[in-house]
Amino acid sequence: MDAAKRPNKLFRNLNSKIASIPMILTVLVVFVGGTTWTVVHSFTNSRLLPRLDFVGLDQYERLWSSSRWMISIQNLAIYGICSLILTLVIGFALAACLDRKIRGEAVFRTIFLYPFALSFVVTGLAWQWILNPDFGMQSVIRDFGWTSFAFDPLNNPDIVMYGILIAGIWQGSGFIMVVMLAGLRGIDEDIWKAARVDGIPTWKTYVVIIIPMMRPIFVTALVLIASGIIKLYDLVVAQTNGGPGLASEVPAKYVINYMFQAQNLGQGFAASTMMLVSVIIILIPWAYLEFGGKKNG
Amino acid sequence: MKLTTKLLAATCIVSVSAASAVELEVTHWWTSGGEAAAVSKFAEAWNATGNTWLDGAIAGAGGTARPIIISRILGGDPMAATQLNHGRQSEELIEAGLMLDLTEVAEAGGWRDVVNPSSLLDSCTLDGRIYCVPVNIHSWQWLWLSHAAFEQAGIDVPTNWEEYVAAAPALEEAGILPLAMGQQSWQQSGAFGVMAIALAGEEAWRAVHVDRDEDVAGGPEYARVFESAVTARDMASGSNVQDWNQATNMVITGQAAGQIMGDWAQGEFQIAEQVAGEDYSCLPGLGEAAILDTGGDAFYFPVNSDPEVTAAQLELAALMISPEVQVAFNLAKGSLPVRGDIEMSAANACMQKGLEILADGNILPTGDMLFTPDTQTQIEELMAEFWTSSMSAEDAQSRYVSIIAAAD
Amino acid sequence: MADAALQDGPRGPKPKKSFSRANIFLYGTLLLVSIYYLLPLYVMIVTSLKGMPEIRMGNVFGPPMEITFEPWVKAWSEACTGINCDGLQRGFWNSVNILIPSLILSISIASVNGYALANWRFKGSETFFTILIIGAFIPYQTMIYPIVIILREIGLMGSLGGLVLVHAVFGMPILTLLFRNYFTSLPEELFKAARVDGAGFWGIYFRIMLPMSLPIFVVAIILQVTGIWNDFLFGVIYTRPATYPMTVQLNNIVNSVQGVREYNVNMAATLLTGIVPLVIYFASGKLFVRGIAAGAVKG
Tell me, what's the ipTM? Predict the structure, then answer.
């Protein structure tokens, strides 16, 4: 801390303030300003161009009576819940496996993590190809003799979200594994020794002792996964473009489509405001715990 | 590859010889084989004038391209020219003064007299000024049929919708998909629109689209349309392609018997070297009612601060509608020219059918001119849901009525 | 500290014998899971080396009977979007042009931010930081339109500068967090000693902090290279066709179907787009893991 006492409060620590100008501008103009602008315009009937012609809650009423929005929300809920649980489980399970003094840990870690280096566009296209009913998984299994086998998630509206889920987990779970692994490495070896001395079985040690100790890691992982889920967009565009029909529509896509394609900015802004609200609901408690509670990082 | 070389050569010559050559960036979403061939006609003609065509193709149909085009115009970084469907989509951009006024060029070129039908120019007009160049007439009302597919099933090629529906079981038995349908909402709602005009009749269609008559939309004429749509949905079950031209390709190869698609599908048949009347048939208005809607593509020219560019924009506008370019472009694209005064003898059997209907005046305005993009999006959403679920005809119709009632 | 922790050995219980049932189960599971992770990469590679006739007949998992590099050549230099048939190469160089200035700008801003937040806190600095972090989670869709307007007002819409700025802004939260945590973890005595010697804000930053923070810079670079290279949304909205980054061009090529879909070319194009981040990832090895772990797990 700058302890020197200077006459003017504003000029104290001046260099630091000057250096922080880009950050302050970003926060005020882009994050706060941009978001406020969007929220304000969600109460207008802006079409192609933004204008301040307020219509109250009309856009929101229409939003919540739109079946496409409801489908989008449901899809996001399905994707979100499955992806949250599966990513956490897979991430933790893989981390636990790798943490057991195995050979080739680095090789396995590399294999699990490389998808994270690839973009969602690449991920979507790769899985679109594997799940192609005429050439991919389905046809291969049929060629083996199981002719009635049917697994064509990208063409079947009922299960299309699971097709996207497979790709999403493939891309993101390695990252969560690394986070979990870092958490496991932070646990004192004495705890394992003590558990062994007491004769507690391994699985029970994980459930009863290790996982509760890793609570902060789980919270971080949860927040990371959740924020990714809400942003889900590129993957859907690349893999299914919302199809078949509306079966894999997601809120982020609804926003973009209404802003630019349907030329109804107000409606798009209302939808993005709803997304913002859900982010805030997830985030505020976490931010409070992480950054508000204790002052030192 | 040949084309690129040609273009490159043209570009090089230009940059050496003409110092005042202007490079114009033109955005569009014509990326299928037939479409790309058509765009290159524009590019060649423009490059031949000593200027340069900078191609800004954006893949993935209008829905992907329009956001990019619009955000660039709004963001103050406009392209020199851009494809947009004319009609209500660009009203606000014109009102905001973002589009170049083409009235002078239009008067000099006598567009009022040569453009046929004149409604095309009307939809480019706002308060008596002209803001866009119509470049072609597209009509949705076509059913494309594969001769090979019907031959394989051992039945005659149908001549109307009823016969086509009746042929479906035999086709399925022969392992042929009766109706190819791309799984994209614009295709699904387009096919519905075709059925509406052909099966509900012109009068009912006008009542819904022009007068927004809810009673007609909920009435028996439209009930028939929705029931036929259910039939079509059954015929298309098992069609899992996405893009329209992949669906067309299924018809070309005989994997599918037919497709409801606009006349741009023609370009794909042409590239595959198929002959109209021998390898494939086309039925305007599903063979039920020979009426075409007259949508089409138009080019807009965003306002630019550079006077040299503005002059070039006007020049390009005049070029696009000039007789030679119109013939070359439309033959490649499979669409009809916007000029009534040019010779289209090179057109094949299908295009001749279209030209005849056009000459008889059996035309309707297109949905783009009557509904806002907002309303159209809602109809597309309904159709996307309808085609991929087992929604009943009644449910779909009642939701359709409420969209029509809310349309502005 | 998460990044330091990864360097230590595993903490889990030691497996008893090398061929115990539990061990076979463990390795079996890992191998099985590895197949799921490796499958797409394998499929992409074999598909990209096949000719179209073979793709139509065979299955996606079979190795190519006849290896051809034609699809790679086509994807790189011949694939068409509209009448531009110059493949992905243009997008590659565009991405490089976007990447380098974005990288320099975003990392220099974020490192100074992190330094100010760690060592030179002022009234309100923590508030700004908290909002900044929350900003990392705001759906980009909320911000697209206001940014179009901001860029228009400063005259950068559609230019390279505009996109660089956007990347700097959206890279700021995570990078600032990274640098702040790192600088906080350095011994405070260093900073105090330098203050006693009379060094100022910039003096300490350049002479003491910068030389000591090479590892975190590497991590930040890795993070940003993959992030910026893989960006699609900003690239498509804030650039023009002539400057489209590679991801956008990839999407264009894959979606421009002329006749039949050429799956082999699409896969080659997909792999070409993924190569840069993959190389960075494989080459940097442990640093990458440390980087993302340090960014995610608060140190």
Answer: 0.82
